[in-house]
Amino acid sequence: MRIVIAKFSPWSPEIYHKSEHPEVVAIRNIISRNSQNNFVLIGVGGQKCEYFKEKGISFYNFGSNTRFKYLLSFFLRFFLCFPLRPTVIVSMGTIDLIPFGIASILTRTKFIPIITGEIWFDLSQVAKPFRKIFAFLLNASLLKAHAVLAISESVGKEVENSYRIKSEKVFVYKYKISSTFNPDVPRTLKQILNPNGKTVLTICRISPQKGLEYLVEACQIIIREIPNVKVVIKAYSSDERYEERLRSIINKYHLQEFIKILKLNVPYSEMPKYMAAADVFVLPSVSEGLGIVILEALATGIPVVASRIGGIPDVLVHEYNGLLVEPRDVEGLAEALLRILRDDKLKKQLIEGGLSTIQRMKENEIEKLLGKIIFKESKVT
Asked: Which phi-psi region, left, alpha or beta, contains residue 27 (left: φ > 0; alpha: ψ -120 to 50)?
């Protein structure tokens, strides 16, 4: 069998061998158990296109940091499927599954999409003249799918209700977070990020989906109450135009002293150190399938503020393991962050609830489901 697995982030030998991200761990374990098969791993993101091979595994990366590169990668991924002639295509993403879904129809390949975000939002980002075309192609791809994996209950329901996919074909999965995220991670980076005050942290892509402009606006309110606070945006840019807009807002409100944008250029194993250095983690998304970084923050013992959107309320229970705010609500976001920064009792309560939540997530279900669906190890239930 030749199995193609695609995800919306680039590959490297170090990421493949060392990353403890649940998706990478799942892929690595599946390949290890089924090494007699031919695996091709495709990544999207970064600045360049490249190909390399290691221990019989083929890796393709497609740059997508500009709109032209992203559009080009869209077509390259589609055409790549024809010379590869895979037996199975697994595609993680939302809009990004379209090239593989249509190629699977034409090549009669078994197709397994993994929906990691709210579909309606991704479609809303497509230019209006092409939106109906993309919706049609996405629907055709999902109807062709052998099975659909969804990152949360809300995403699963969207797949069923909006795209008429039979419920028995849709499987909602949960993650087990790497033990590298834990409450004993040293807080050494605190002295670097903000030695004299409190730190608000977010880790994400710089894209409209993440609602970072609302965090910037909320920062204006927060610094009036706590002048020595710092907001740290640890991110990689998947949309250069949006990043320019974000930086212009920061400059407009003279917030350069209070907001740091740090490139997400460290190994996954280093991310817990950033979590541990924060006083509160925030994810102000306007759309989100789930937000795995929320789980990572909870596991590190950091209180969380996040938007009441998508699959986030599946995990966060307001005032038990985090605070939920309405998306785009700048004042509500600022108020929630201030509550945690001021109230140590509330902070402790949320941390305890978060750690309890993580302790109940004992299995990386995406690995189990993919193993069963691809290799028919046993009946999927």
From this structure: alpha
User: Against a cut of 0.85, is the pTM above it?
Assistant: yes
| C-beta separation of 352 from 317 below 8 A | no
| C-alpha Rg value of the chain to the nearest Å | 21
Beta pairing partners, 230: 199
Residue 188's Cα: distance from chain center in Å?
A: 26
Q: Shortest CA distance to 199 belongs to which of 221, 224, 220, 228?
A: 228
* Digit-coded pLDDT (tens) for 45-87: 777 889 999 989 999 999 876 778 888 999 999 999 999 999 9
Question: Phi and psi for 182 in degrees, rounded to 5?
Answer: -155, 160
Distance (Å, whole) CA 238 – CA 204: 10
What residue type is assigned to position 248 of the chain?
A: S
Look up residue 145 and give its two tokens.
């799918």
Q: Which two tokens stand for residue 193?
A: 């990020």
Q: Domains in the chain and their CATH numbers?
A: 2-176+362-375 (3.40.50.2000), 190-359 (3.40.50.2000)
pLDDT tens digits along 250-300: 999 999 999 999 988 788 889 999 999 999 999 999 999 988 999 999 999
Burial (Cβ within 10 Å: 0-12, 13-18, ≥19) of residue 179: exposed
